[in-house]
């Protein structure tokens, strides 16, 4: 949960998650919708899908015990070298290096590495340095300490250099470059895509949601059906879903930013016509009626949840 997400945001999610899934077997036995429901709002939903898959693999292929071999751990979905090293170090006190964002920042400043740390050559150098600093004992303590040191002491902005025990060895401090390092990635302007989200409402105000494909944005989550801009929504609903609808109001478009692109979302309200259409929707396993009074325990992305709340307020 902490990957790409702040601690203060994660804490309430973490507590709810552990209350619902107190063990690996409980998580593995859960349906994906339960997992995504508790993850809704955290973003980067591939993390939740990978966590769920990994729990099932550990249950089915490793007898319910997390593998203690680094390569075996790295074969689990969503677990790379740094995450595997952190787990094995902290859970089993094994001697493995880690290289999360906090550690990268600390090493880049200590050694005045003036290249973007995401490049292959720099990554290789950082791994060698991380291995060199490993102690011969108390590896669990060391792993936690070096992550906390980067997060709390050698911070991204306003590092506490005046009270740093490494101040005498830090080349970035000596060169007056702590604000410059690590070198940020050069970002290009994010491309803009536009989609229309169809808010299909029935007579009682329920909104039709469909499960998105497992890969891609909001993978596995539930969202209003999506069509391309310029397409007649009434015709699209009839041809794609077999539903008779009539067009309602448009809602002001908004932009949601992902890592690699920006998405301009134009919501369009349409109203379902006829009981026959309702029955057809109820038969489809990839569709559900979302009722705000008795919401389904399913994963809904934060922008979609805000959109639904905005619709129900009008």
Verbal overview:
Among the domains are: 98-186, Helix-hairpin-Helix base-excision DNA repair enzymes (C-terminal) (Endonuclease Iii, domain 2, Orthogonal Bundle), CATH 1.10.1670; 192-313, Nucleoside Triphosphate Pyrophosphohydrolase, CATH 3.90.79. The mean pLDDT is 91. The radius of gyration is 24 Å and the shape is globular. Helix content is 42%, strand content 14%. It has 13 helices and 8 strands. It is α+β, with helices and mostly antiparallel strands. The strands form 2 sheets. Strands 1, 4, 5, 6 and 7 form a 5-stranded mixed sheet that branches. It has a 3-stranded antiparallel sheet with strand order 3-2-8.
Brief summary of the model shown:
Helices cover 42% and strands 14% of the residues. The protein is of the alpha+beta class and 314 residues long.
Write the layout of secondary structure elements.
Blueprint: H1 7-20, H2 24-29, H3 32-39, H4 46-61, H5 70-74, H6 81-92, H7 101-110, H8 120-132, H9 139-152, H10 171-174, E1 192-201, E2 207-211, E3 222-223, E4 226-227, H11 233-241, E5 245-250, E6 254-257, E7 262-272, H12 275-283, E8 287-290, H13 302-313
Parallel strand pairs: 1-7
Antiparallel strand pairs: 1-4, 2-3, 2-8, 5-7, 6-7
Helix pairs in contact: 6-9, 7-9
Using brief descriptors, characterize the structure shown.
alpha+beta; 314 residues; 3-stranded antiparallel sheet; Endonuclease Iii, domain 2; Nucleoside Triphosphate Pyrophosphohydrolase; 5-stranded mixed sheet
Order of helices and strands: HHHHHHHHHHEEEEHEEEHEH
* Biggest β-sheet description: 5 strands, mixed
- Helical segment tally? 13
Distance between the termini: 34 Å
What's the number of extended β-strand segments? 8
Q: Any idea of the CATH class of the domain at 192-313?
A: Alpha Beta
Helix content: 40-55%
Rg, please? 24 Å
CATH topology of the domain at 192-313: Nucleoside Triphosphate Pyrophosphohydrolase
Reported CATH architecture of the domain at 192-313: Alpha-Beta Complex
Tell me the fraction of residues in β-strands, as a range: 5-15%
Mean pLDDT: 91
What structural class do helix, strand and pairing data support?
A: alpha+beta
Low-confidence stretches: none
User: What is the CATH H-level superfamily of the domain at 192-313?
Assistant: Nucleoside Triphosphate Pyrophosphohydrolase
Overall geometric form: globular
């Amino acid at each position: 949960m902490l990957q790409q997400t702040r601690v203060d945001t994660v804490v309430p999610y973490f507590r709810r998650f552990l209350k619902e899934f107190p063990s690996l077997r409980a998580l593995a036995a859960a349906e994906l919708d339960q997992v995504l429901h508790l993850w809704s709002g955290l973003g980067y939903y591939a993390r939740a899908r990978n966590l769920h898959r990994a729990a099932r693999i550990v249950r089915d292929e490793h007898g319910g015990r997390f593998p203690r071999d680094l390569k075996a751990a790295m074969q689990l979905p969503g677990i790379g070298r740094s995450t595997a090293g952190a787990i094995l170090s902290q859970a089993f006190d094994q001697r493995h290096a880690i290289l999360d964002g906090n550690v990268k920042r600390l090493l880049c400043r200590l050694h005045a590495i003036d290249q973007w740390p995401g490049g292959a050559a720099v990554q290789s150098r950082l791994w060698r340095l991380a291995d060199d600093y490993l102690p011969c004992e108390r590896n669990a303590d060391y792993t936690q300490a070096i992550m906390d040191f980067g997060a709390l002491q050698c911070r991204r902005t306003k590092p506490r250099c005046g009270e740093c025990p490494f101040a005498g060895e830090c080349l970035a401090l000596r060169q007056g470059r702590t604000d410059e390092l690590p070198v940020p990635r050069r970002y290009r302007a994010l491309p803009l895509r536009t989609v229309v989200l169809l808010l299909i409402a029935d007579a009682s105000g329920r909104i039709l949601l469909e499960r998105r494909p497992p890969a891609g944005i909001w993978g596995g989550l539930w969202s209003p059906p999506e069509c391309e801009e310029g397409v007649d929504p009434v015709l699209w609903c009839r041809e794609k879903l077999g539903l008779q609808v009539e067009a309602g109001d448009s809602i002001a478009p908004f932009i949601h930013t992902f890592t690699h692109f920006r998405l301009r979302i134009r919501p369009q309200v349409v109203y379902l016509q006829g009981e026959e259409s309702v029955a057809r929707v109820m038969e489809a396993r990839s569709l559900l009626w979302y009722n705000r009074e008795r919401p389904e325990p399913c994963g809904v992305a934060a922008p979609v949840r805000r959109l639904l709340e905005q619709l129900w307020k009008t």
